[in-house]
Structure to design on (407 residues):
C-alpha cells in the first residue's frame, strides 16, 4: 500500500514544558510525536522539573532534555539560538500564567523563553491553569498579546481541575492538539478557500421505526473535511447520520433526509469556493410515510417510491453563477470509467472521483480507498491507501485546479 509522507516525519519540534500538574499529560504527546517520526527536543523550566522528571521526557523523545541555558552551552549542546531557529515548530504545553506573561512581554530569563524569542517557526501555546488565573484580566491580556505577535493559542478545555474546582483551564486532549500541530506544519495552499463538503448517507423514513438508507460510513467525506482544514481552508461539513466525530476546526451541520441535505447545500453553496459532494444521498424515498409503526401483519409488501432531488445536478446548474469548483463522487460496481465520464458531463462537474464499491478494501465503511480521478484532462488512478491519504491526493489536484483557475 502506497502512503503519502507523514507530516511529522523528520520535523524538528521543540516542546516547552512549564510548571503545571498537567505536565504529565504532555509526556504522552512527546511519545506520540516521536512515534510519528518527529525529532523532538524537550525544554523544561525549573518548575516543570518538580512535576515530572526530565528523564521521563528523555526516554520518550530519544533526545536529552534541556533545562538550563548555560549548562547547555557548556556541554556544547544545541544553543538557545539554534534551538528556536532550527525548529519547524515550537509547542509550549502546559503553558503557565507565568510563562505566558514572560512571552507576552519579551522576557528572556530562561532557556525556553529565549528560544521562543529566537524562533523563526510557528509557536503554539497551550495554556493550563486554575480557572480564576486563566480568566484574570492580566492573563487574558497576555494571551491577546501572544495572538497579536502571531503565536497560535491552543484553547483550554473546561472541566474539573486538579484543585477540585470546575471551569476552563484544562489542557486539551492530544487528538485536538495534534490537529492544530498538523495545520501549523502543513502547506497552507488552501488558505482563504471556503470548502463545502457533504458526507455520509441519508435516511428516508418508512414509518417511525424504519427507513431506507445505504452503507456509507462518511469516512471519505470526513477525511476530506479534516485534511482541507489542515491545509488552511475554512470548511463547512454537511453530514448525514454517522458515528464519526466532527473533525477539529470544521463546522458541521447534521441532516437526515435527502430533502434536508438539498436545502442545506443549496443555502450554503453561494458562499463556497469549492464544493465536494461525497455524501451518498438516497436516490429514492417512499411516496408516503406512515405516522405509526407498521405492524408485521399489516405491512404492504410493495412500497411505492419517488425520486429525491438531484443535489449534484442542481449544483452543476448553479456553478457558473456562483463560480465555485465542483467535485462529485461516483460509487460504482461496474463500468467505472464510462459511468464517471457520463456523470462528469451530465452534472457539469470540474472533477469526479470514481470509486469501486465492490472492492474488499475500497467499498463502504473501509479505512482504505482507491479512486480514479477524472477531469477535462483525463483519468488519473490514485494508489490504494488510507482514506486520509486519498483525501490529500484529491486536495493536491483541487489545489492545482484552483491555481490554474486564478491565472
Amino acid at each position: 500500500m502506497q502512503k503519502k509522507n507523514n507530516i511529522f516525519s523528520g520535523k524538528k519540534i521543540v516542546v516547552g514544558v512549564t510548571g503545571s500538574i498537567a505536565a504529565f499529560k504532555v509526556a504522552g504527546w512527546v511519545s506520540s510525536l516521536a512515534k510519528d517520526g518527529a525529532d523532538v527536543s524537550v525544554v523544561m523550566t525549573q518548575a516543570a522539573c518538580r512535576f515530572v522528571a526530565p528523564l521521563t521526557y528523555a526516554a520518550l523523545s530519544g533526545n536529552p532534555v534541556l533545562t538550563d541555558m548555560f549548562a547547555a552551552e557548556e556541554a556544547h549542546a544545541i544553543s538557545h539560538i539554534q534551538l528556536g531557529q532550527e525548529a519547524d515548530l515550537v509547542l509550549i504545553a502546559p503553558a503557565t500564567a507565568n510563562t505566558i506573561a514572560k512571552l507576552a512581554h519579551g522576557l528572556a530569563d530562561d532557556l525556553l523563553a529565549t528560544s521562543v524569542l529566537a524562533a523563526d517557526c510557528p509557536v503554539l501555546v497551550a495554556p493550563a491553569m486554575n480557572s480564576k488565573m486563566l480568566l484574570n484580566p492580566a492573563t487574558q491580556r497576555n494571551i491577546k498579546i501572544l495572538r497579536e505577535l502571531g503565536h497560535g493559542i491552543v484553547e483550554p478545555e473546561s472541566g474539573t481541575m486538579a484543585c477540585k474546582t470546575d471551569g476552563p483551564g484544562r489542557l486539551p486532549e492530544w487528538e485536538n492538539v495534534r490537529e492544530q500541530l498538523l495545520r501549523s506544519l502543513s502547506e497552507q495552499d488552501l488558505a482563504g478557500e471556503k470548502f463545502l463538503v457533504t458526507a455520509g448517507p441519508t435516511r428516508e423514513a418508512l414509518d417511525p421505526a424504519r427507513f431506507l438508507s445505504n452503507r456509507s460510513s462518511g469516512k471519505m467525506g470526513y477525511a476530506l473535511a479534516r485534511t482541507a482544514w489542515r491545509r488552511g481552508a475554512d470548511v463547512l461539513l454537511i453530514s448525514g447520520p454517522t458515528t464519526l466525530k466532527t473533525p477539529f476546526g470544521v463546522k458541521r451541520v447534521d441532516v437526515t433526509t435527502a430533502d434536508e441535505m438539498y436545502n442545506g447545500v443549496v443555502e450554503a453553496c453561494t458562499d463556497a469556493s469549492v464544493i465536494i459532494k461525497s455524501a451518498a444521498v438516497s436516490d429514492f424515498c417512499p411516496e408516503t410515510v406512515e405516522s405509526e409503526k407498521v405492524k408485521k401483519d399489516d405491512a404492504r409488501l410493495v412500497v411505492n417510491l419517488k425520486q429525491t432531488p438531484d443535489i449534484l445536478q442542481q449544483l452543476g446548474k448553479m456553478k457558473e453563477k456562483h463560480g465555485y469548483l465542483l467535485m462529485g463522487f461516483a460509487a460504482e460496481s461496474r463500468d467505472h470509467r464510462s459511468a464517471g465520464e457520463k456523470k462528469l458531463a451530465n452534472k457539469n462537474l470540474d472533477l469526479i472521483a470514481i470509486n469501486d464499491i465492490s472492492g474488499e478494501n475500497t467499498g463502504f465503511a473501509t479505512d482504505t480507498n482507491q479512486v480514479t480521478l477524472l477531469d477535462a484532462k483525463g483519468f488519473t488512478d490514485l494508489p490504494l491507501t488510507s482514506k486520509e491519504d486519498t483525501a490529500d491526493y484529491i486536495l493536491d489536484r483541487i489545489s492545482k485546479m484552483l491555481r490554474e483557475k486564478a491565472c
Summary: The chain has 14 helices and 21 strands. The first strand starts at residue 12 and ends at 17. The first helix runs from residue 23 to 35. The chain has a mean pLDDT of 92.
